[in-house]
Design goal:
CATH superfamily of the largest domain: Phosphoenolpyruvate-binding domains
Number of strands: 13
Helix content: 40-55%
CATH class of the largest domain: Alpha Beta
Radius of gyration: 23 Å
Number of domains: 3
Shape: globular
CATH topology of the largest domain: TIM Barrel
Strand content: 5-15%
Largest sheet: 8 strands, parallel, barrel
Structural class: alpha/beta
Bound molecules: phosphoenolpyruvate, magnesium ion
Distance between the termini: 68 Å
Number of helices: 20
CATH architecture of the largest domain: Alpha-Beta Barrel
Length: 474
């Protein structure tokens, strides 16, 4: 007794809902495709023309977007991204940043009521949008854009200078990569190394786990392009919002608190061992004798026990593989992204070679806010004093044992946070390759003493808003 349109939509909605319930998150996310097809058929039934993407550059407004959809965006056309849901440190936002697409995410339901073809100012830096702006506002926005372009051009011209504060305190600036093919591009942008290679993206690009030879070649490619600069490769960090189709994880109520990162990897130690072996083989000295500094780090470590399990495999491989066939300049470290490992940093620092602080997850777990949460993620600010205290503890513990500390979360490229991180004693900042020149330029704007003062002031606050106010007031 219902109309064809109603029947059709009910069928699509039921099927999409069933798909959303699948344990495999990648398949579950594809429910969006089913709804998309459903909407297209519905528009034909209702004689409504759906908008086609415009031929000119535009801002894409959408409910939500997955990392793989962001990777497929046409960057020549999509000049901005605005989503109803999602968080600034969710992997889709990180990818948008890597592609240089300004984005405002998790902006709320109201954005879906914006009119097609209307004018919109989107300020990704401040996370603001201005719909139907006045001429005056548009003029101001154009001026801001020109000033930004100028700042970028200046930073670009000095991108190969060594990264240091105004008074010469060195801070290494490296690049975060998801694809080894982009290592040469990172060097061209002034990166002093790769500070985070998210190897799970290499695994996602294959339909089954890449074998030893494939992995060795991929890592070798990055090391060749880096020509003696260090490569920090993170072992497979699958789970949470990064599912791997051929490594399904049983349905979990809280995937971010579940089988993720090193926990998942240790359920299949053979896969981890192959990855470690490939990294070590790829790090063998080059034919021209140039060293290939290799730093291997483990994701989602909660205490020293997980590190020791992997270290045992690592040590065995170092003995098994003849010394002239593997990396010699090699370090094994851990990511600090769970509060327990920051609190226990002294016990970890005694055994690891280095720390890299993943502020995206560290913030998520410290503040108990899902990094992709549609409403709350705006409050998940890495400049929260609780997160800063954990960073302080981590750096102090590492330096007491002569170990170095990097920051590879999105906070490392936040212009307000950079002096605080330097003031806390962080030795390396690893950021999206595009941000490298700007981060180097930011470092040249202050002295080490200013940075220490910023850190001191930030630590004295009790909320992240108070931290930002205190730093911006200066
Ligand atoms: C982090 O958590 O800060 C991090 C760098 O790792 P990922 O964003 O890949 O989880
Ligand atoms: Mg992380």
């Amino acid at each position: 007794g219902r109309s064809a349109e109603a029947g059709w939509w009910e069928a699509i909605d039921t099927a999409a809902h069933a798909q959303e319930m699948l344990a495999d998150r990648l398949l579950a996310e594809r429910a969006a495709d089913l709804r998309d097809v459903g909407r297209r058929v519905l528009s034909v039934l209702c004689h409504i023309e759906l908008p086609e993407p415009p031929a000119h550059p535009y801002i894409l407004v959408t409910e939500d977007i997955g990392p793989s959809d962001v990777a497929r965006l046409d960057t020549a056309k999509v000049k901005g991204l605005l989503t109803e849901r999602g968080g600034a440190t969710a992997h889709s936002a990180i990818l948008a940043r890597a592609l240089g697409i300004p984005a405002v995410v998790g902006a709320g339901r109201a954005v879906m009521a914006l009119d097609n073809e209307s004018t919109l100012i989107l300020d990704g830096e401040r996370g603001r949008i201005i719909p139907s702006p006045s001429e005056e506002r548009l003029t101001r926005a154009r001026q801001t854009l020109r000033a930004l372009e100028e700042r970028e051009a200046n930073a670009w011209s000095r991108r190969f200078e060594r990264a240091a504060t105004r008074d010469g305190h060195p801070v290494e600036v490296a690049a975060n990569l998801g694809n080894t093919l982009h290592a040469a591009d990172a060097v061209e942008r002034g990166a002093e190394g790769v500070g985070l290679l998210r190897t799970e993206f290499l695994f996602m690009a294959h339909s089954s786990a890449p074998n030893l030879a494939t992995q060795t070649n991929e890592y070798r490619q990055a090391l060749e392009a880096l020509a003696g600069r260090p490569l920090v490769a993170r072992t497979l960090d699958v789970g949470g919002d990064k599912p791997l189709p051929y490594w399904p994880v049983p349905q979990e109520d809280n995937p971010f608190l579940g089988l993720r990162g090193i926990r998942l990897a240790l359920t299949e130690p053979g896969v981890l061992e192959t990855q470690l072996r490939a990294l070590l083989l790829a790090g063998a000295p080059r034919e021209d004798g140039l060293a290939c500094p290799l730093r291997i780090m483990l994701p989602m470590v909660k205490d020293v026990a997980e590190f020791r399990t992997v270290k045992a495999i690592f040590d065995r491989l170092m003995v098994e593989i003849p010394a002239d066939e593997r990396a010699t300049d090699v370090q094994l470290g851990v990511m600090i992204e769970i509060p327990s490992s920051a609190l226990l940093a002294p016990s970890l620092a005694a055994e690891v070679d280095f720390f890299s602080i993943g502020t995206n997850d560290l913030t998520q777990y410290t503040l108990a806010i899902d990094r992709g949460h549609p409403v709350l993620s705006a409050q998940a600010d890495g400049l929260h004093p609780a997160v800063l205290r954990l960073i302080q503890m981590t750096v102090e513990a590492a330096h007491a044992q002569g170990k170095w500390v990097g920051v590879c979360g999105e906070l490392a490229s936040d212009a307000v946070a950079i002096p605080v991180l330097v003031g806390l004693g962080v030795d390396e900042l690893s950021v999206s390759a595009r941000q490298v020149p700007l981060v180097k330029a930011r470092l040249r704007e202050f002295d080490l003493n200013d940075a220490r003062e910023s850190a001191r002031r930030a630590l004295a606050q009790s909320t992240s808003d108070a931290v930002r106010d205190a730093l911006e007031a200066n």
